[in-house]
Prior knowledge:
Blueprint: E1 3-4, E2 6-13, E3 18-25, H1 31-34, E4 35-38, E5 42-49, H2 53-63, H3 68-78, E6 85-91, E7 96-100, E8 109-113, E9 116-120, H4 127-138, H5 143-156, E10 166-172, E11 183-189, H6 195-210, E12 219-220, H7 223-235, H8 243-253, E13 265-266, H9 268-280
Antiparallel strand pairs: 1-5, 2-3, 2-9, 3-10, 4-5, 5-6, 6-7, 8-9, 10-11, 12-13
Helix pairs in contact: 2-3, 4-5, 5-6, 7-9
Amino acid sequence: MARSSTYSIVACDLERREWGVAVQSRFLAIGALAAFAEAEVGAVATQSFMNTDYGHTGLRLIREGLSARDALDRVLASDPEPERRQVGVVDRDGTVASHTGAACMDWAGHRTGKGFAAQGNMLVSADTVDALADTFVAAEGPLARRLLAALLAAQAAGGDRRGQQSAALIVARRGGGYGGADVAVDLRVDDAREPLHELERLLGLHELYFGATAPERWLPVAGELEAEVRAALAGLGYATGDLAADLETWAGIENLEERVEGAARIDPVVLDELRRLAAAGPTTRNPQEERHG
């Protein structure tokens, strides 16, 4: 059984109805084993000598009505080696629980607060967990951004004493993902020299493709702006004369279809991307022959 020297934070934003986990480790593909989240249920991080049953069973128990503390206690009681585990849990109501077993390697410990549990083992010092907790509390915005900010601060404070290798960020929100899925964010860096920088880059792309701009900020497509949009699309190979169809086809090819609704108005993020690609010029591909998938 592999030990993972890891730091993580589980948290929720009850106003946004989001639950999530952020984790970094000197361990290959930590996100595949350590991070669990379910919309309107909760989130779990399991580390040290990882036991994925804490994630699967913990969420099931919360789904059945147990609190974070009761669910964690139930799984700990069924584990023959609880002293080797480190776990953080947040439930549907924002109550939290954390456990650091006596056999976790120094430095190991955890902090809990309103709506979050931060924990780490085999760290440079307690400063890492303090940075996780303090930064999360101070950060603003969507849960994914607050969780990432906490990871970045934790690394700057010392991090895993063996170094970096992988990181993951998961956020669940009912209907908040692509096509109405409950997984709003699921990003993983399995092996990299600076996994948090790569995770930050991926989150930026995720926000580009799957983010949402408030409807009142969308721009009416008329007059000079309509002419610009038509010209940009034509330059990229989309010029059937049906502006809505051309815009939607282009958006589908560029994975921006969730940010386009006809052609009467346009998301400014989509407009910026259209302008950027139009300025770069057409590629060698034939967009009319491509298939989105």
